[in-house]
Task: structure prediction
Amino acid sequence: MADSTASKRYPVLIAGAGPVGLSLAIELAWRGIRCLVVEQSDGAVDFPTTNLANTRTCEHMRRWGLADRMRYESGYPTDYPRNYLFVTRMNGYEIARFDHPANGDPNSRSPYSPEGRLWISKPYFDPVLHEYVSTLPTVEVRYQTAMESFRHDDERVVADIVDVASGRHSSIEAAYLIGCDGGRSTVRRQLGIQFEGVFAEGMNVAVLFRSPLLSLTPHGPAVQYQILNPQVQGAIAAVDGKELWRLNIRGVKQEQLDSLNAPEKLRFALGENIPFELLAVRPWTGHCVVAKSYQDKRVFLAGDAAHLNWPAGGFGMNTGIGDAVDLGWKLAAVLQGWGGTHLLDSYGPERKPVAMTNVKEASEMHAGFETQVAFSAILEENSEQGREQRAKAREAILRTRAKEFQNDSPGIEFGYRYSQSPICVPDGPEPPQDDQGNYTPTTWPGSRAPHVWLKDGRSTLDLFGKGFTLLVLSSKPTDTSTFTTAAKNVGLPLAVVSLDESKIRETYERPLVLVRPDGHVAWRGDSTPDNPAAIIDHVRGAD
Result:
């Protein structure tokens, strides 16, 4: 039994020290909020998953001061190109390719951002977060500490935790509890919140191996090689950019798991004469589900505790870090006294639609693997028929996979918006139409405020973060005193930034744009409104 009294009270208790839980801790610390993170493991990466930190995630890390550390200091090669190849085998035919610059190449930055996508596996990504969190005085992390249960009401949360090594139980009291504890979340299960969607869409087997294949393959370096042949369909992903690799085998049936010959499948993927050392085999199941609710009183869900999707597209971790940023600034606002009583209630309505879109998109990308190419032996023939088959396969891949592999899905990374948000002020016109494969910068309320390079070398994104930012983009003097007074009256942090630059005026569409701490547009207008206090109350969740 846990101690009858809570030993210590924290503003926020986070269950889970994966990338999402640690990102939430960093976001809270960045805003001056103290928190405790409990993690039942020792924090080490026991199997390498997660390959992609997308550009939006890197924008958040830029604000935290971690983007360049991930890019240049994590240990993953900065000169390793982020290429995606489709091949019959590692020593077979190349069918199609999508080339991208390496993490450290200046050309790897997105045209829509001061940052760019990073290919980085968990053995490199997670340690940077763990090390950084260890330097933050407002964050306490307890490893090998499991959260067994909790009690909550309108005033507080009391969690029962246990030290895994000693078996000692204790209680922790917190103002808020966030479940970042994965797909089998204890927090979600105790709340009784169900996942909605399609479970077990397919069984997969991940095979970790060591091989000098870069010196033996004719295809050159790539971060991912999609394998297309009759014996095995899957993908080989670079783990360390040197000798560690992960083969993911798709389409394995449950009854085949016990008899699956992992070395044989690996040989089918590599081809003859490429040596390998098998290190680990791990089966996993793909899901397409989102939690019915993201919140119950003072308890919230984020990351895999709230949504599970196929890894296609690299949306899982990145969606979860987006959850952490959205929830982090709102928790800070309420704990600091300027957030309204309804502010935290906006978390689910904003983030759940994003998860639903990303889960659906990942599922469709996964389905595309099975329909784009006929996995026949002809694909590998050195014959006219074989060349024709490979040409047809190439055309299909370039037509159907460019959104994911060539264009980096900018509509998903930058184009998502909180269209139904209760704390953004709609301004009449219909929002831009969703397009997951393309992105058109806009300041429609709820959208991510666009990146524009300023004359002084900063990005507009560098202007946002600590509080709200009111951009004044008129070449004429504009009186914003009513706005600043309304913000000051309720303690809302507001910076007014005047910019007389034609490029930003064109991109930002209105002369006045109010941007939230997470970089999303809260309100925009052609002139100072007659009701600034009402707008301030609306965007802080107080009306």
